[in-house]
Amino acid sequence: MNQSFNKTLLASSLTLALAMQAGLASAADCIDLRSDAAPRLELVRGKSVIKRFCTPASQVTVGDPKVANVVVPNSGEVVIVARSVGTTNLIVSGRDKRSTVIDIAVGLDTLALRSQFDTLFPQEKDVRIGSSGNALILSGMVSDAAVASQLVELATAFQAAAAPSGTDAGAGVGAAAGSPSPSGVGAPPAAAGGASTASTGAKVLNMLSIAAPQQVMLEVKIAEVSKSLVDQLGAKAGYTKTNGSWTYGVVSSLLSGGAGSIGGVGTGIKELTIDGEKRDGLVKILAEPNVMAVSGQEASFLAGGKIFIPVAQSSGGGTPTITLEEKEYGVAVKFTPTVLAGGRINLRVAPEVSELNREGIGISAGGSGNASAILPSFTTRRASTTVQLLDGQSFAIGGLIRNNVTSNIKRFPFLGEVPVLGTLFRSSDFQNDRTELVFIVTPRLAKPMEAVPALPTDHYVQPSRTEFLLGGQHEGKRATATSKE
């Protein structure tokens, strides 16, 4: 009997305690309309919340229905629909004629974007998402620039998908408690949570910092070997005879290609000339330019010179004016690095080697046919590509093997075709040009040096007059580290 009574008493006590706790929680969650402190509500765009009043309300009025909409189902509660980013307020009038102003701030829903970030980029733990007005703010530290770009693109797509695209016309400003609401103010939450023009101009502010080194040094090696072989062999055999006032010859020079001359010569001349020439040239070019740039920025390098080329410009029917156009030549490199995850470097590089030719281009004025000016011409070798390498790896991005063979034979008709003896009546010219060129690039992640390295001029000592004039020395003797007194 006593045990049954004790169980009943315990159950009643627990029920009473739960009821009291629920009542206290309900009282704590409700809005006290008789309080002098103005409450403030933080809402998320596109979401709805239900707020209860501690005392019955007679009327609820919203300041800006484009920011927040209200539905009043009864005198004890209100449904608030956050429609667009901004601030507004509610004026709630109680039955005792007292009014309470409730401030409302509507912001962006960053929890959904945070969930996407955690799913797609689980290793990026230091990324923070905030909002200011209608803009998302991304801050914190990321591993590399590629991840930062992807985060910004994802946030931009999230903004575009979540932004409302229209507005409801004829929105009201107030609703009596317990009565149907006017269009817009008392609309159901599903319809009222729609669109608004207040959210135009949504954007993403990128305040992310990159943890990876962002400076890239590019080492470019340009190696070229050019070999030229020229063989010439020619002969001139001739006999001239004077008969009265006329002079005639059998054959003239085949090497020069000139015709026999007519003029006064001796009564008889016999001539035999053999001309042979062999030239063998070798040119080697090795350039190693080093350039440094920040990730995502273009850097350029030029070791060479500039030349100005005259260019004619039309002046509207009158005499054309001559302007000078600048042309650069030498060893040039342009590249744009992008640091990726894992020490990978995406590289857009364009090396170029150009030089002036020994023989220019002759131009003539007035159609005379004789060259009155010689314009410079250039030999250019360039490559342009995009590669992806690890720190310190090398890659040959361009190569050229050129082999030009030129052969010319000049002979006297019929006589130059005679075996053995015809050698005296013909000349041959053979030229072979072979060029090999390769570009090798090596990107490296660069960091500031703790100590300044030695410069090439640190150990140079200027010679004295005696050392230069009498000894013919271009560099003086280095001073000893310690001097004896």
From TrEMBL:
GO cellular component, one term: type II protein secretion system complex
Signal sequence, renumbered to the chain: 1-27
Compositional bias annotation for Low complexity: 176-192
Key words of the record: Signal
GO BP annotations listed: protein secretion
Domain of life: Bacteria
Occurrences of domain Type II/III secretion system secretin-like (ranges): 279-445
Stretches the record annotates as Disordered: 169-192
Pilus formation protein N-terminal domain boundaries: 38-106
Record-linked InterPro entries: Bact_Secretion_Sys_Channel (IPR050810), GspD/PilQ (IPR001775), T2SS-T3SS_pil_N (IPR032789), T2SS/T3SS_dom (IPR004846)
Family: Belongs to the bacterial secretin family.
Protein name: Outer membrane channel protein
